[in-house]
Amino acid sequence: MHHKIFRGLAAALLMLPVALWAQESDFHCGANELQRMGALIAGHPERVQEIAQANAQLEHYTATWGGDAARDGDAYVIPVVFHIIHNNGPENISDDQVRDAVRVMNEDYNKLNTEWPNVQPEFLNIVANVGITFKLAQLDPNGNCTNGITRTVSTLTYNGDQNMKNLIQWPRNRYLNVWVSAGAGGAAGYSMYPSAVSGSWGAPADGIVILSDYVGAIGTSSLSHSHSLSHEVGHWLNLKHTWGDSNNPGLPQNCGDDDGVADTPNTIGWTTCNLRGATCGSVLDNVENFMEYSYCSKMFTNGQKTRMLAALNSSIASRNNLWSAANLVLTGCSGPAVLCMADMSADKRIICAGSSVNFSDESYNGVTTWDWNFPGGSPASSTNENPVVTYDVPGTYDVSLTAGNSTNTVNTQRPQYIIVLPTTGAPLPFSEGFESTPSLPSADWMVNDINQDGSFQTNGSAAYTGSKSVRLVNTAAKSGNVDEMISNTIDLSTSGPTTISFRYAFAKRTNSDNDALRLYISKDCGQNWVLKRALTGTALSTAPVQGGSFTPNGQGQWGYSETSPLSGDYLAANLRVKFWFQSGGGNNLWLDDININGTPLGISGAASAPGASVNVVPNPAGDRAEIFANLQDAGKVSVDVLDLLGQQVMHVAGGTRPAGPVQWAMDLGSLPSGLYLVRVQQQNAVQVVRFTKN
User: Fold this and answer.
1) CA distances for 235 relative to 2, 190, 306, 579, angstroms
2) Reading across the β-sheet that carries 388-391, which strands appear in turn?
3) Band of the pLDDT at 681, cuts 50, 70, 90?
């Protein structure tokens, strides 16, 4: 076994800053990347020297530490907090997935994982019971109740860098901080060695960043990814990769490097599970080590245990305070779980009458009894941990939960928690100009302010028609954020082909903005959504680029959009409509004149009759338009304008006409804006066409 020789500061730095971990990939993790600490290290050469000195100090301590006989066989307990940084995507993993990750770590560090007895026989006698137990914190830095999980909404989740860490961190001398993210700079995760963050200036970088799909073995993760945190904790406790300080396994020059552990054979490192692999003159490489990239990690060695426990007993980066009796009391990890908060979740909070909701207890900690109350639901009460409740009558309903154990009970009340919509919605025609809507949400519209930064709201500063519309305040700072405006149920079951139309106004702030507006519909009360219209970038813009706050200055700065006719299964009794907007750095979005209109079934049949040929030009029309038709027979004809209920609102022409092409002019100045039908009726034929009046 070769031992690392210090070759001055440059060589020392190779040992220090960052170690990254990836599985099931030929990706080579980045190593020794001090720049990941950003402004903490950039422009501070004196801190590089501090790191080298701390590393030398920790290596000396490790070499001379004789163990702790008083704690032999006694587990070290480490309080842990998981900071889930998310943008409301799959990276916002469940509490259960976090708890599963803690389970896996505890199995790996206490020789309890089911795979370790299957390691190669040559290594069975050195599989280590490291004796470290990880516990989710039960008290936060202020002494308040916690489940050891925080959630922060930020687009920095895609970066996974120091700026993301700066969003939230609990004191590193009291907690192991784990940040869960959607990105980690091209790696599955990374952690600093203790010496790299030993100074007080390095505290904000101390902890582990891990991708959400490498946390535990359930949810977004998998069994093959589940040991990634065990690997990262190894780095956090001063373990190197088995081949040394490179993150490039498989290279011949790795034989000249070393991990500072006597019982891990020198190796070039593995990215495949070659169980009988042997390199660098060894009889057999420890391919199944947690500090390999081999996809089949199962064990730490006794030598690695000694190195990690030395780091844990050293004052470098405050590791020795974490497991102290005083700190375990401060973090709530010193004894049995303390029941301190009742909490709940529901898989759906908006349903149609007759549907069910799956409730889950999220109380903490150590809950053994549950007393639920569901006014308006069936059952109306339950003592199950995770009950299923059906709601048959439209309305808004409260939910309460009392959670208990043998010594305590805690309660939570959730007023208006469940919204039950009518299975048969509002009849057609549905017209929304927001003139009588004081604010949102309303009886007809709900808003989903996903990023909690303001969403769709009624506004009297501009409108296409009338005096009010809906505005979504949009700024460059909201880039990537999503907002939704969702309708109540609407009944299309007695309609023929139906269109949805709306007016919109939008301006970019810069030419490079790429905001997006989408219209979705649901034929099952919002359980599933189908995209019907999409407007992005230039196609969404209705006004010139504006740096200030955009308000349309007249009808000329509004656009019009209409779906293709809905038919078949989409003519549902509980149709819902959703306007979805994602900021791309642009300006404000405005919506007005949302119309959902279907042709009455009798008229829709006539409109699709063989040989029918009638058009309105232009369409959409202004105050004047022309009707072009092809009459199948000579004779009397009647031309009328109808509303979408089939009622006549204007008589255009009558009399006798020959067969063939014919044309009539329409004066539409007296008609309000909206959707209409032109009906050309003869004795043996009826032709119908839909048009829009602006």
Assistant:
1) 20, 8, 14, 46
2) 344-346, 355-361, 388-391, 377-378
3) confident
Q: Is the peptide bond before 121 cis (omega within 30 degrees of 0)?
A: no
Neighbours of 120 (CB within 10 A): 16
Q: Are 555 and 549 a contacting pair, CB within 8 Å?
A: no
Catalytic residue among 59, 232, 292, 432: 232
Residue 21 has pLDDT above 60, yes or no: no
Is residue 655 within 8 Å of residue 612, measured between CB atoms? no
The pTM of the full predicted model, rounded to 2 decimals, is 0.77
CB half-sphere exposure, 176, CA atoms < 13 A: 32
Side chain identity at 406, as an amino acid letter? S
Q: Is 362 a catalytic residue?
A: no
Taking only Cα atoms into account, the Rg of the chain, rounded to an integer number of angstroms, comes to 33
| Helix 228-236 and helix 95-109, axial crossing angle in degrees, nearest 10 | 60
Exposure on the CB side of residue 693, measured as CA atoms within 13 A: 23
- Asked if 658 and 631 touch (Cβ cutoff 8 Å), the reply is yes
Query: Are the C-beta atoms of 207 and 165 separated by less than 8 Å?
Result: yes
Around 243, how many Cα atoms within 13 Å sit in the side-chain half-sphere?
26
Interatomic CA distance for residues 17 and 24, integer angstroms = 24
Please say whether the beta carbons of 86 and 151 come within 8 A: yes
Confidence of residue 684 (pLDDT cuts 50, 70, 90): low
Distance CA 677, CA 691 (A): 6
Residue 286: HSE in the Cβ half-sphere, 13 Å Cα cutoff: 27
Tokens of residue 250, six digits: 């498989």
Q: What does the angle CA 352 – CA 94 – CA 528 come to, to the nearest 5 degrees?
A: 30
Instruction: Tell me the residue type at 49.
Output: Q
| Partner residues linked to 628 by β-bridges | 615, 663
Residue 505 gets the label, from left (phi > 0), alpha (psi -120 to 50) or beta, of beta
Scored b (16 or more CB within 10 A) or e, 394-408 reads beebebbbbbbbeee
- Asked whether the beta carbons of 402 and 411 are under 8 A apart, the reply is yes
Element (DSSP H or E) covering residue 53: helix 45-64
Phi, psi of 8 (to 5 degrees): 90, -175
Does the N-terminal peptide bond of residue 365 adopt cis geometry, omega within 30 degrees of 0? yes
- CB neighbours of 69 closer than 8 A, spacing ≥ 6? none
Rounded CA-CA distance 104/297 in Å is 12
In contact, 364 and 394? CB cutoff 8 Å: no
Phi/psi at 596 (5° precision)? -125, 110
**pLDDT for res 19:** 40
pLDDT per residue as tens digits for the range 89-107: 999 999 999 999 999 999 9
Give helix then strand counts, H and E, for the chain. Answer: 10, 36
Q: What is the identity of the amino acid at 572?
A: A
Q: What is the mean pLDDT of the chain?
A: 89
